[in-house]
């Protein structure tokens, strides 16, 4: 059977219980990997999740001149070697596979003075333009042209600028940040994204020798340093708040009691507060948190917002939780209009959800029932696995390759918690 035809089979098996370890964050590790383009030598990343996107980013970096390998003694450690011979070209076949490939733009431009980049791909949920990346880099002295589907950027040496984002874009903040590391003078990013993964990138860059103020705030100030003043470092990837929420949702829909080792409650304040309103008891622990779920949750209304609001990536999980909660929940999507496609799949499982543009109305039902469903993207795929845990009978999920892009052994982790789940 080819990998695309793989399935995850889930059967209702009652409350989950036990401990689960939260892996490193996809949305951080991919950016840290791209940032190794800034400096020659050997960078070591620890707490790296075993997910397909790491290998895809690794292939992209290898084509550019940074080789990578997992440490044979510890699969969660990745060693990246920048040999110094960088070809600043990101080819279509590799770029189209993940959105995070856009993150090579800032480091390559500031290091090499030119980049040729295919337009990025990734999860197909609506249009995801890069105009803010381009405008920010233009303000720093870069010029752009489109040539046969490739974006060609140039800048002899970037200079500092004050860049005010209309919207705190994660990717644009990261590209301006990395580009500013070697720019002449100071770059100020106003209304910068504040996600924990951005702080992780800032801390990584600072350890390498970059000069950044305001880490964790919405105003980042980057004082440019000389190109040869960075050195490679060893860095631990921040734990994945979205994978953490996935195991919280799994405990929640089964009325279970689970401890998440390595979860960082301080990175999930808003969703945790809302989960408490739904009736979950969440208790921070020294090295993570524990969650206890009641037999039936209460509905809430919520809207997705940039950090520290509820991230759009949590939404399919929360909609799944609402689908069996008591009451009606109104969901507003403020980031990606196309991100309700998984609702059709939840309907197959017996959920009662109607959508209209940016909104969904979720009427909680008492019971979902198993059915074949298809994962449309990473987070929605995981949400369908979670829904399958709550559904009576058997749920068969196809499109598993989407889930593998961002989830490190979700099947193994859930079976360890007592779920009846396997791949075939
Ligand atoms: C990152 C995450 C993704 C998450 C999203 C929002 C990665 C690899 N992906 O995506 O999982 O859902 O943050 O938390 O880290 N936009 C523009 N112009 C731009 C840039 C963005 O219009 O130049 C729009 C996008 O189309 C989208 C919104 O802004 O509607 C959010 O984008 P952004 O914050 O940049 O998200 P990503 O970095 O793409």
Q: Write the CATH architecture name of the largest domain.
A: Alpha-beta prism
Helix percentage = 25-40%
Instruction: Give the DSSP E fraction (strand runs of 2 or more residues).
Output: 25-35%
Mean of residue pLDDT values? 95
Outline, from the CA principal axes? globular
CATH C-level label of the largest domain? Alpha Beta
**Order of strands across the widest beta sheet?**
22-23-1-24
According to DSSP, the number of beta strands is 24
Which ions, cofactors or small ligands are bound in this entry? uridine-diphosphate-N-acetylglucosamine
Given helix and strand content, the structural type is alpha/beta
CATH topology of the largest domain: UDP-n-acetylglucosamine1-carboxyvinyl-transferase, Chain
The number of domains: 2
Given as residue ranges, the uncertain stretches (5+ residues, pLDDT < 50) are none
Mind telling me the CATH superfamily name of the largest domain? Enolpyruvate transferase domain
Number of helices: 14
Instruction: State the distance separating the first and last CA atoms.
Output: 9 Å
Whole-number radius of gyration? 21 Å
Summary keywords:
424 residues, alpha/beta, UDP-n-acetylglucosamine1-carboxyvinyl-transferase, Chain, 4-stranded mixed β-sheet, 26% strand, globular, binds uridine-diphosphate-N-acetylglucosamine
Can you walk me through this structure?
The protein is α/β, with parallel strands linked by helices and 424 residues long. The N and C termini lie close together (9 Å). The protein folds into two domains: 8-22 and 239-423, Enolpyruvate transferase domain (UDP-n-acetylglucosamine1-carboxyvinyl-transferase, Chain); 26-236, UDP-n-acetylglucosamine1-carboxyvinyl-transferase, Chain, CATH 3.65.10. It has 14 helices and 24 strands. The strands form six sheets. Strands 22-23-1-24 form a four-stranded mixed beta sheet. Strands 2-15-17-16 form a four-stranded mixed beta sheet. A four-stranded mixed beta sheet has the order 4-5-3-14, with helices on one face. Uridine-diphosphate-N-acetylglucosamine (UD1) binds next to helix 1, helix 5 and helix 6.
């Amino acid at each position: 059977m080819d990998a695309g035809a793989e399935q995850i089979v889930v059967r209702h098996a009652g409350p989950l219980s036990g401990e689960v370890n939260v892996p490193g964050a996809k949305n951080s590790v991919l950016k840290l990997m791209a940032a190794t383009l800034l400096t020659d030598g050997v960078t070591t990343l620890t707490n790296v999740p075993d997910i397909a996107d790491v290998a895809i980013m690794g292939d992209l970096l290898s084509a550019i001149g940074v080789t990578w390998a997992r440490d044979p003694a510890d699969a969660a450690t990745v060693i990246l070697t920048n040999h110094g011979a960088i070809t600043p070209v990101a080819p279509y076949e590799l770029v189209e596979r993940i959105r995070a490939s856009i993150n090579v733009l800032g480091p390559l431009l500031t290091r090499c003075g030119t980049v040729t980049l295919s337009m990025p791909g990734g999860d197909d949920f609506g249009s995801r333009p890069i105009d803010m990346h381009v405008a920010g880099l233009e303000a720093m002295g870069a010029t752009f042209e489109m040539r046969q589907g490739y974006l060609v950027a140039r800048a002899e040496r970037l200079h500092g600028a004050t860049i005010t984002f209309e919207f705190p874009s994660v990717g644009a903040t990261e590209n301006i940040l990395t580009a500013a590391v070697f720019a002449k003078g100071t770059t100020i990013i106003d209304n910068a994204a504040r996600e924990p993964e951005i702080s992780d990138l800032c801390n990584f860059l600072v350890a390498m020798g970059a000069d950044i103020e305001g880490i964790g705030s919405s105003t980042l100030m980057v004082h440019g340093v000389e190109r040869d003043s960075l050195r490679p470092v060893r860095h631990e990837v921040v734990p994945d708040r979205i994978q953490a929420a996935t195991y919280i949702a799994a405990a929640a829909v089964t009325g279970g009691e689970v401890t998440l080792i390595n979860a960082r409650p301080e990175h999930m304040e808003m969703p945790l507060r809302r989960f408490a309103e739904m009736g979950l008891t969440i208790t921070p622990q020294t090295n993570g948190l524990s969650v206890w779920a009641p037999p039936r949750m209460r509905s809430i209304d919520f809207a997705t917002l940039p950090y520290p609001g509820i991230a759009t990536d949590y939404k399919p999980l929360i909609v799944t939780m609402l689908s069996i909660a008591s009451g009606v929940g109104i969901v507003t999507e403020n980031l990606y209009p196309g991100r309700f496609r998984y609702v059709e799949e939840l309907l197959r499982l017996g959920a009662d959800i109607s959508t209209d543009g940016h909104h969904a109305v979720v009427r909680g039902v008492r019971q979902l029932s198993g059915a074949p469903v298809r994962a449309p993207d990473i987070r929605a795929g995981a949400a369908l696995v979670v829904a399958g845990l709550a559904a009576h009978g058997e749920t068969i999920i196809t499109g598993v390759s989407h889930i593998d892009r961002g989830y490190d052994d979700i099947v193994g982790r859930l079976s360890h918690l007592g779920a009846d789940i396997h791949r075939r």
